[in-house]
Amino acid sequence: MNIQTLLNQRIQAAMVAAGAPETAPALTRQSAKVQFGDYQANGIMGVAKGLKMNPREFAQRVLDKLDLSDIAEKVEIAGPGFINVFLKNTWLGKELVELRTSDHLDVLEVSNPETVVVDYSSPNLAKEMHVGHLRSTVIGDAVVRTLEFLGHNVIRQNHVGDWGTQFGMLLAYMERLRAENAEISMVLSDLETFYRAAKTCFDDDPEFAVRARELVVALQSGDEDCLKLWDEFIDISLAHCEETYKMLGVSLERKHVMPESAYNDDLQNVINELTEQELLQESNGAQCVFMEEFANKEGEITPVIVQKTGGGFLYSTTDLAAVRFRQHTLEANRVLYFVDARQSLHFQQIFTLSRKAGFVKPETQLEHMPFGTVMGSDGKPFKTRSGTVAKLSDLLAEAQERAYQLVASKNPDMEEEELRNIGRVVGIASVKYADLSKNRTSDYVFNWDTMLSFEGNTAPYLLYAYSRVASIVKRSEIDVTSLTGDIAVVEAQERALAMKLCQFEEAIQQVANDGMPHFLCAYLYDLAGTFMSFYEACPILNAEDEVKNSRLQLALNTASTLKQGLELLGIETLERM
Ligand code: ARG
């Protein structure tokens, strides 16, 4: 259930009944302070101004039309015309029983599901995935899971870079190895080394460079042998990605790959359409679109180049074709792009041009969801100790090892197998959570000690909190599936916990709207803390029957909300650690 939506609708209806225009927003939010109640509507003042009325007077008229007696204890006017709502404990208790018994944590599936295309991960296949791909992959996947949980129709698009001049060099190197009878798949098992070796040949050996250029031309003109070689390379590179996705617990599969090359045959059509619409202009032999929106103060416009001198197409051309495909074939209502903030201008241009060219319907939303860079403690983009870009697979292996050492030192008696499993879950969770819990628009510093800490808004803290709640429920030795009876919200800590539990849907709605999983992380961290205060103040297992039964249900609700929330973030939980 979504209290905010519920109250907002009711207050809005009362506002309209009191004379406000249909579109007047009630602006109902969770209150910032307890004295303002649980929720506060801030929309009255703006509307009263429009009606040329005294805001407090208008607020009183709204209250006269507003009946919240079924859910609220008290509704009051405060300050210049805020409406403060204090919810009833009995109502919260009932909602929590609903939450416990529904199989979807009482989150209603949206009544108007949208088709949301999500472009995420999308690495270039010439190299192995590195730390720079972590954010797009992990944040995109959390948003995808959340949208699906809310009932939207989500289409994953892994827009991998599998085309371009660097493939000539890689194919030339494959060809050379083949001539030397080397075991290609062995050499390709480390793509990073392979790329560097190919690059060295390209830079140092002019004959090799010539061959590399020939192969680019052959590839682009559809030469069969060349395409076979390329296919083989792409297949191995994708397999590397898939290993990383599996390790990370990311839901991307082969069927979600929609590579750049898939649009090759459509690129000329894009150019033709832009020509027909008289949007193209030649500049130094290249085909460009100049849009006034992208002029600087001096009036100079940064153009979108869609075709190079000589006829080659670009990253932009492919993205225009992708927009058309997503609109016309996938029938998207919303397209989300989880891509580095440094590509902001590119996406603003693609979106503006797509609208001008009619590639998308006016009501379709195109949203770039930018994110900052993963930094090292030196304030520069994160690198390995040897100074190279950190390979994602190595990083994840290190995370698991570090987490294992940490857990092993805390649990000397635990079996090796279980320790390894906990190490895996905690290690991966720590890396993902460190990324997810920060506002994605800012850079963040990659730091092993903070991400593996058991204190603060971290994965180990939350996983440990979950396992504690789960163990309380388990120790009760009550078959929780048969738990019935009321949930009594009496003590202040019970109320705080009840309130938090009822706000789960609001948190995930924010993730879905803004593509920002850190809202859910902050919510789960708060929930865990609120539970701990409740547990300190309100004994569960030693309480007498009815109270015990009620508090146990609160604990059970906490456990399932934490578990579900972490699952939406793509994080596995542990029953003990
Ligand atoms: N492959 C690109 C890169 O690594 C990201 C692609 C993002 N998606 C898109 N539709 N352009 O920078």
TrEMBL record:
Subcellular location: Cytoplasm
Protein name: Arginine--tRNA ligase
Catalyzed reaction equations: tRNA(Arg) + L-arginine + ATP = L-arginyl-tRNA(Arg) + AMP + diphosphate
Any single Pfam family the record assigns to this protein: tRNA-synt_1d
Record family assignment: Belongs to the class-I aminoacyl-tRNA synthetase family.
Subunit (UniProt): Monomer.
Location (main, coarse): cytoplasm
Enzyme type, top EC level: ligase
